[in-house]
Design brief:
alpha+beta; elongated; binds adenosine-5'-triphosphate; ATP binding; EC 7.6.2.11; ATP-binding
Length: about 350
């Protein structure tokens, strides 16, 4: 059996079913993210694992023991929140030592753990500072050390980076992953930021309205989304309505253009379906390949590593991404362009 097993978990708050029949198996040492829009039940699920909420139904098994109704302080779980929640009147060292002192660990062990934790979060020398003397990022690293000092069986992180600046957020993200891997600790990370979930996790649980939509590696949920929600929540997606011309040959029609996609044996001729394509699969300005569409540039957004071009394709707006390079000639609004994409880049959504 998996290290942490969530079995048919549900949570109801009055009329709201916040979490519905949630099933997940987490391996020891795995880093799993819960990703979804506000209100989809991520925090509630995390709080049930921590013991702050009792499930309305279902079970939580940790390392072979049923902990569903165990009080939080007996679960041996570490938690990091969005607000650093450090004790303002305690030094860094005393904040880190807090859980160990409550557990009445010997002073020698406490000293040793403080020193190891400071080394791990790269704040050696800061032990006598108070939280107000630290930056937000440093405070959050202390909060992480405090959660880890008790050697928890699972580390839970609830949007731990959302109060920080963009640059610190990216730095600390890498730090969290490094520390998690160094300790081999099992971690569950709640976020509504897809980039954070994709970059940190071994697996991502995509949630919507209290339900799991898909569980998979970052590669799987991005490249092989199982539902329309997952496809549109993670990354950008172009949707183009087309009519099936020849299902066996994978030919579809968009206005007067016949497009080649992969064979669609489960569909019928004449059916209206939606082609879904990522912006990075749309090539701009070349006539190679099998599918070309005429378009007109609406606007150009320079994002650094990529340039995102919004194009009008005969009344339908799509996004096409170019890789930035210094020699690039940027398209301009009003330019006539050709968009092409390979047959294997599109998937077909059939909503009928
Ligand atoms: N204590 C509570 N009492 C009543 N309703 C609650 C309570 N806690 C959460 N809810 C409701 O349950 C649903 C799920 O909330 P939850 O906080 O788990 O979502 P979330 O995905 O973590 O959202 P966010 O990203 O905004 O924190 C929401 O509709 C919320 O209003």
């Amino acid at each position: 059996m998996a290290y942490l097993s969530l079995q048919n978990l549900s949570k109801r708050f009055g009329p709201t079913l916040a979490v519905r029949d949630f099933n997940l198996e987490v391996e020891r040492g795995e880093f799993v993210s819960f990703l979804g829009p506000s209100g989809c039940g991520k925090t509630t699920t995390l709080r049930m694992i921590a013991g702050f909420e009792l499930p309305t139904s279902g079970k939580i098994i940790l390392d072979g023991n049923d902990i569903t109704t165990l009080p939080p302080n007996r679960r041996h779980i570490g938690m990091v929140f969005q607000s650093y929640a450090l004790f303002p009147n305690l030094t860094v060292a005393d904040n880190i030592a807090f859980g160990l002192k409550v557990a009445k660990r010997p002073p020698e062990e406490i000293r040793k753990t403080i020193s190891e934790m400071l080394d791990l979060i790269r704040l050696t020398g800061f032990e006598n500072r108070y939280p107000y003397q630290l930056s937000g990022g440093q405070q959050q690293r202390v909060a992480l050390a405090r959660a880890l000092a008790i050697r928890p069986r699972v580390l839970l992180l609830d949007e731990p980076l959302s109060a920080l600046d963009a640059k610190i957020r990216v730095e600390l993200r890498a730090e969290i992953r490094r520390i998690q891997q160094t300790l081999g600790i099992t971690a569950i990370y709640v976020t509504h930021d897809q980039e954070e979930a994709l970059s940190l996790s071994d697996r991502v649980v995509v949630m919507y309205e209290g339900r799991i939509e898909q569980v998979g590696t970052p590669f799987e949920v991005y490249n092989y989304p199982k539902t329309r929600f997952v496809a549109s929540f993670i990354g950008q997606l172009n949707l183009i309505p087309v009519i099936v011309e020849d299902p066996q040959q994978g030919k579809v029609r968009f206005d007067n253009n016949v497009l080649q996609v992969e064979p669609l044996p489960h569909l019928n001729r004449g059916q209206v379906v939606t082609l879904a394509l990522r912006p990075e699969e749309m090539n701009l300005g070349t006539v190679e390949g099998r599918n070309h569409l005429q378009g007109r540039v609406l606007d150009v957004m320079f994002l650094g590593a990529i340039v995102r071009v919004r194009v009008d394709l005969q009344g339908r707006e799509v996004l096409a991404d170019l890789f930035n390079e210094r020699q690039l000639t940027l398209p301009r609004p009003g330019d006539q362009v050709i968009i092409n994409f390979p047959p294997h880049a599109c998937w077909v959504i059939n909503e009928a």
